[in-house]
Amino acid sequence: MEVERVQAVASSLMTAETIPADFIRPEQERPAITTYLGPAPDIPTIDLSLPDRDSVARAIAHASKEWGIFQVVNHGIPAELISRLQAAGKHFFDLPPEEKEAYAKPPESQSVEGYGTRVSKDVNCKRTWNDHLFHKVWPPSSINYRFWPTNPQDYREVNEEYTEYIREVVDGLFRCLSVGLGLEEKAMMEAVGGEELQYNLKINYYPPCPRPDLALGVAAHTDLSTLTILVPNDVPGLQVLKDGHWIDAKHIPNALIVHIGDQIEILSNGLYKAVLHRSTVNKEKARMSWPVFLEPPEEWVVGPLPQLLSPESPPKYKAKKFKDYMYCKLNKLPQ
What region holds the Fe2OG dioxygenase domain (predicted)? Predict the structure, then answer.
């Protein structure tokens, strides 16, 4: 018993010296313990260029029901543009801290926009190992360029060009999600705001971590968005919960990763599933990702689509304003 006690103390001291205690996740969350090491299926990959549009819609609907996440290739966004987007984001995070702090979220702000660095804690007072930059990219009336870096000089140009392309991808995805449930092509897009849909870009930066076995870049969660469309760099880290196991997402160069968010699950009355996911960190390399969160306007009411309801399929979710849903989710309140 004395030997075990000494080993436990030594282990605790080593941990305390290499990573602050408030970054250490509980055992049931630690990636070294909970990552599934057995054979696991890959997240579905869907080729958006296939001429049979019905088969593409069926594949997206199936992945959204069974996984809540899928990757898309041949999506029409030039690889060169994705590389420029990644280079611009990396350039910003390589700047000295004082330059990045010029874009910090104001302390009194209720908005999520701005730069942040490992400052937030979850309900268990644990921190996650990441920095981020968050700003709106569409519609133009919502954009506050105060939070768009001017270094590198091409940051605005690259992000605006990327946004134009991503909007075309979004339109196609929403059409497929609608058709996949037997609805009119525009049904789901119109149900979440149509042209008023908000595009919020976040750059996640996960610095090298001395104890990746103990920390997480982002703890397990579903996105409160409709869809999240994400570009990662080549450092692995995204994990999804599938059949009770945390499995790694395979990196496919230039693919987009599409997450089903809470609002699509609500609209579909649970037919499509919001994916529970998290991010691990790396000891040697910085991981980065560029998610775009597609959200309804704050005053927009989202509920199960009437076309999907019947006496046999009653509503499973309450209809409510998006801002109220967001408040409840962020404050861990019942929906």
Answer: 196-296
